[in-house]
Design a protein that fits this description.
403 residues; mainly alpha
Length: 403
């Protein structure tokens, strides 16, 4: 008796619910057929899905998909006719249509677990969904171009996720072109994450983005920059090493790697990098300049001067070669000046080194007067030791300003 009463009460509850469901689906389908009040049709279905009893109802999901797909199609038509429309709204409608289709597909799979060949909606909407997926990629491009990097990532992410989970639309587009687009989408998402300083998102997209070989040097550069910024030194150097190994003629990886080893006092490692670079291109001026700088830091002044001399014979206005030459002579003078016992010969040599250093450092100063950190202190010491009265007064005033 209790069971009969329970079933009766359940039927009393369900019948009005089913009646309301049919009425709202019918109303939504009327809106869809007329192409009007599509947002209301969508709202009606989303409200139905709030009811746990309807969350696996194919008709509700189908109607929702058709409502948002119609919104997307209307926007697409306006764009095609070059009529005034909100491009962002069109792409948002495309994303909604895509997500609605996935929800419909999931429910249909739930009802046909054993035989996926019976998935009628998957077959019915495959062509339409393929176009929607492409609009996810284009939507990412649109929002990226507009500077809305966070929203761009949402679109790229859904496009990539669809590819990874092998949704039907991308199964039909499973070719080299779609592979290329997906790796490009991953790189674009990584670039957006870079702009947001989000290292976790960058690492999420990095493996797939690497498949886009043409953009790999940029990817490694972005990764290196963000790791440096976040203080992840090991990953920073790893990105530089990989970048230099794969692209030895890319000056970003070369210069930053040599610079990092130099700042750490690992001059032998820096010299290894320079030597590897010169094996690739023995005529590259930047590599030779870097080598002269390494020799300068190693206090191998003769080797430094020999490289700079050969470079200045080709171009006597080469700033870094001029600076390194001046600093080499300056350091040689300072080191000899520190010796406790000095003969007349040594003092003359010190004087000559200071004079040579002065010529080059003054020339460098004339080229880059704003780079005081490089020439100010050496010229102060030089003018002091060479008794350059007016020059010393002027440089002394500059030193006081800096202090």
């Amino acid at each position: 008796m209790k069971r009969i009463l329970f079933i009766s009460l359940l039927m009393i509850t369900i019948i009005p619910c089913v009646s309301a469901q049919k009425k709202e689906i019918a109303q939504a389908r009327s809106f869809i057929k007329n192409g009007k009040n599509l947002d209301k049709a969508e709202e009606l279905m989303r409200n139905l899905l709030k009811d746990s009893l309807l969350r696996d109802n194919e008709k509700v999901y189908l109607t929702l998909f058709e409502a948002v797909m119609k919104q997307r199609d209307q926007g697409n038509e306006l764009l095609y006719l070059q009529q005034k429309t909100d491009t962002a709204d069109f792409f948002e409608a495309s994303l909604k249509a895509h997500l609605a289709y996935l929800a419909l597909d999931s429910v249909e799979v739930l009802h046909n677990k054993k035989d996926h060949s019976q998935l009628k909606y998957r077959q019915r909407f495959a062509r339409h969904v393929g176009g929607v997926c492409l609009n996810l990629y284009k939507g990412g491009e649109h929002f990226k171009r507009k500077g809305n990097t966070r929203r761009a990532i949402d679109f790229y992410d859904e496009y990539i996720a669809s590819y990874i989970r092998n949704a039907i639309a991308l199964q039909l587009r499973n070719d080299s072109k779609s592979d290329s687009m997906v790796s490009q989408a991953a790189f674009n998402a990584l670039h957006c994450a870079y702009k947001l300083d989000d290292v976790n998102l960058m690492e999420k997209y990095a493996p797939l983005a690497r498949k886009n070989q043409s953009m790999l040097p940029y990817q490694l550069q972005y990764m290196a920059n963000i790791y440096r910024k976040k203080g992840e030194e090991k990953k920073y150097v790893g990105s530089l090493e990989e970048g230099f190994e794969k692209f030895p003629q890319n000056l970003y990886f070369f210069s930053h790697l040599v610079g990092w080893y130099g700042r750490k006092g690992k001059y032998d490692k820096a010299l290894e990098v320079v030597s590897r670079a010169l094996e690739v291109d023995a005529t590259n001026r930047d590599y030779h300049l870097a080598k002269s700088s390494v020799f300068l830091n190693q206090k191998k002044y003769g080797e430094c001067l020999a490289i700079c001399d050969s470079l200045l014979q080709l171009n006597d206005s080469l700033p870094e070669a001029i600076l390194n030459t001046g600093l080499a002579y300056y350091n040689m003078a300072v080191e000899k000046d520190k010796q406790p016992k000095q003969t007349a010969t040594v003092r003359k040599k010190i004087h000559n080194y200071y004079e040579k250093a002065m010529v080059y450092l003054e020339k460098y100063r004339s080229l880059y007067p704003e780079r005081k950190r490089r020439w100010l202190h050496p010229l102060y010491i030089i003018y002091l030791n060479l008794n350059q009265g007016e020059k010393f007064d002027e440089i002394n005033a500059l030193m006081n300003e800096e202090n």
